[in-house]
Structures are given as C-alpha cells and as structure tokens.
Amino acid sequence: MKSPPDKITLNALFASFWYQRKLILKLTRREVQARYRGSIFGLFWSLFQPVLMLMIYTFIFSFVFEVRWGKELESRYDFALLLFIGLIVHAFFAECLNRSPRQIHGNIIFVKRIMFPIEIFSWVTICVALFQAAINYLVLQVFFSLVHGTIHWTVLLIPIVFAPLIILTSGICWFLAASGVYFRDINETIQILTLALLFLAPVFYPVSALPPPFRPFIFINPITFIIEQARAVIIWGAMPNWPGLIIYYALALLTAWFGFATFRKFRGRFADVL
To answer: 232: left (phi > 0), else alpha (psi -120 to 50), else beta?
Structure first.
C-alpha cells in the first residue's frame, strides 16, 4: 500500500486520492452495492429514483401550480429542469456533509490500524455521492433533450463547473470527520444546516426574485454559485462566469488544504478518543 507525502501541501492533498485510488474505487463500489443490497431491483433504484422525482416535480410545479421561472422560459417543463439542477447540486453537497461526522465512528476497526489511510473515507463519501449525482445528471440531460430536441454543447463544461465544489466539499468533509470524533452533536447540527442551505440557495426560486440588497448574501451559500453556473451551461447554453470560477477554485483549494491539514493534525488521537 503506497503512502502519500507526509507534508501537508496541496500536492499531498491530491496525492491522498491518487496513491489510494484503487482502494477508494473498491470501497466506493462496495458502498454503492451495499446501499441496494437485498432489494429486488438493486442498482436500478439509483436510476428510478431521479426519474420519479423529476416526474413528480414536473407534474406538481408545471401542471398543478403552473409555476414559471420567468418570462424568458416558454416551456412549462423548464421550471422542473431548473429545479432539478438545484436539487442535484444540493443533494451531492448535503449527502457528503451529513455523512462526514460519522466517518470515523463508523470505521473504528480501520482507525486502530496505524498503516490504514483513514483520510480516504472522505474521498469514498464524495465518490458515492458523485455516482448518484452522475445518474441524476444523465436523467436530466435525457429529459432536456426530449423537451427541447437538442443539448447545448456547453454541457461539456459541467466537469469544470462542478470540480471546485468537489474540492471544496473534500475540505469540509475532512474537517467534519475530525470534528465528529470530539463533538457528537455536530451530526445533528449539520443535518439542520444542510436543510437550511436548501432554502437559502436559488433552488426553488431565481436570485432575481430576492430584493437587491439581499442578493449578495445568498452567494455566501457555497452551492449558490455552482447552481447558477450549472444552469447557465445546461439550460441557457451560455458560458460560465470564468472570473467567478477562478475565485471559487482558489477558495475551494484553500478550504480543502485547511480541512486536510486539520484532519492530519488530529488523526493520531482518534484511536485514543474512540
């Protein structure tokens, strides 16, 4: 088993993934399979669930409430598409954060093995959430093509748009994983926070619906900018906000480094606390 560099640098951060990529993939596959083990349809549920969700949102908001996002949208299905993009981003972020405080407690047997790289549990959590996000995204694109008869070429930029959120989330996951060892109440706190982030992000409403003085504050929510840029490249076929993405990447790398450094600093004491 290879070991990443001991120095807490950005190189060590990504090396924690690269050196253990095979183990991370194995654990991710095992966790995805375990999620649906015992069910009749197995992994089919990962595809059926987003299809069902999209159908329900389309019916409720487009046909029952006849909600419209704005004058620029003519299709009654577009609201469901916009809503689904926001939910995909939030679901990924919320799943990672909600599972992180329990990572160490749920893997005590590995924590007490000195040579086991326990920092990879955050990568596994992210990969599992990414698997479901990818399935949801596939459903979204199929539905979009059925509604509009085409797909914008700008969807190729989705990995670039989503990558900084993955980097940011990794840092938060490491920090929460370390904090969860010492503070048990953080699990319930994070669940409340992630629910609040759902309504404090432009998931069910556009940023333009807020009074101008409050609009800058909604971008404090880390998923707001990603949701807006994902909608730009998927729905509008527009280019993302490149300067904004560069700033987001910088903040995400800083957050990831801080979370990784915090985890590395306290991991030697986990076994004693547990």
So the answer is: alpha
Give the up-direction half-sphere exposure of residue 116: CA atoms within 13 A in the CB hemisphere: 14
Can you give the pLDDT at residue 208? 85
Is residue 114 predicted with pLDDT exceeding 70? Answer: no
Q: Domain for residue 163, yes or no?
A: yes
> Which H or E run contains 123?
helix 120-148
DSSP annotation of 119: T
Residue 3 lies in a domain: no
Which residue from 159, 116, 92, 123 is spatially nearest to 259, judged by alpha carbons? 123
Distances (CA, A) of 211 to 69, 214, 228: 16, 6, 17
pLDDT single digits (tens) 203-231: 888 888 888 888 999 999 999 999 999 99
The structure tokens 């590395």 sit at 264
- Is the confidence at residue 120, as pLDDT, over 70? yes
Digit-coded pLDDT (tens) for 46-56: 777 777 877 88
Q: Are 4 and 19 in contact (CB under 8 A)?
A: yes
Q: CA 238 to CA 261: how far, in whole Å?
A: 37
Residues 252, 256: Cα–Cα separation, whole Å? 6
Domain count, the chain: 1
- Please report whether residue 5 resides in a domain: no
Report the distance separating Cα 86 and Cα 230, nearest Å.
9
pTM here is 0.88
**Cα–Cα distance for residue pair 122/170, rounded to 1 Å:** 7
Q: Which structure tokens are listed for 185? A: 């109440």
Residue 1 in domain? no
Say if residue 137's pLDDT is above 70.
yes
The domain of 222 spans 10-273
Question: Is residue 6 over pLDDT 60?
Answer: no
